[in-house]
Input
Amino acid sequence: MRKTKGIAVVTGILALTTLTQCFTEKQNEGQRLYEANCQSCHMEDGSGLRNLIPPIASADYLQKHREELPCLIRHGLEGPILVNGQEYDRPMSGLETMRTDKITNLLNYIQTNFGNNNERYTLQEVDQLLESCPPHQH
Amino acid sequence: MSNRNKFHFKKSIITAAIALSAGFFYSCSESGARNQSLPILGEREAVEREVNGQLEVDTLYHQVPDFAFVNQDSQRVTQETVSGKIYVTDFFFTSCPSICPKMKSQMLRVYEEFKGNPDVLLLSHSIDPQHDTVAVLKDYADRLGVQSNTWHFLTGEKDSIYDIASKYLVAVQEDGDAAGGGFTHGGHFILVDEQRRIRGVYDGTEEASVDQLLQDIPVLLNEQQHAQN
Output
């Protein structure tokens, strides 16, 4: 009886650790995606580059254009934009093939790091916002 | 009381140690700056010649050939522009989505440090001169906040640019790969002396490597000054 209890406890701890690991992995996914896709232009600290590349850090754009961001990640953007009162006008390439869950993780990482403390997205919300901009047929 | 004495003793030893090591450090860095010299890079050639019946050997160092490009202000930039100056050069393109922003953020450090010194120039060549016209380069330089005429953003004949890149020992190539923006190129910063010889190669995407460049520029300036006197 005692032995069974012991095994149960061990199994429980193992399961919990695995689960936590999974979540941590998922949490880090946003960061990994940022590093792989965004960092070379927007920099490690999200500061951007002078008046060429807009900052991610403490950028009002993230709140003002919250609902457009999923499509912006998918298709990129072209033409002038205003970030913290400064005009920027460089094209950004999109991540056409990135899945909805990854876009969600990436956006949540951006919205809650680099001095940003903005509302997170749910998967459903991003899914809905992406409906207006289906992936291009290649 | 004895404890207190012990403490004092310890403290004085530590102070002495710090003073001593600081002294060492100072003397090292001082003599270092004076004696330090930068290597001359690239292939060299031994040329024999006869002087009064005696055979003498001269070493010919790799030298960057004459060039002619146009900068962001539509001014011609040639070997005359860099004559009597040292310069740092790199290769980039304005629509580059990969390493260029990082390179430019690091080149800005060099610019900020030496923009007041007319003897130190920066030459950034576009490897996409078709797209990077004078107007595009002007906008790029303005947005980087570059006002001084010590940093030239260059465009010109594509073949000439690719050719001179190889003379700076930098690999550039058009590859048509969309992810890299259509071009591959080394992220190097090259330090060139008054005689257009290569004196240092740095990784323009690595802060530590650019730290080294910032230390090497004064060493080269110092050497040139001594050569003049």
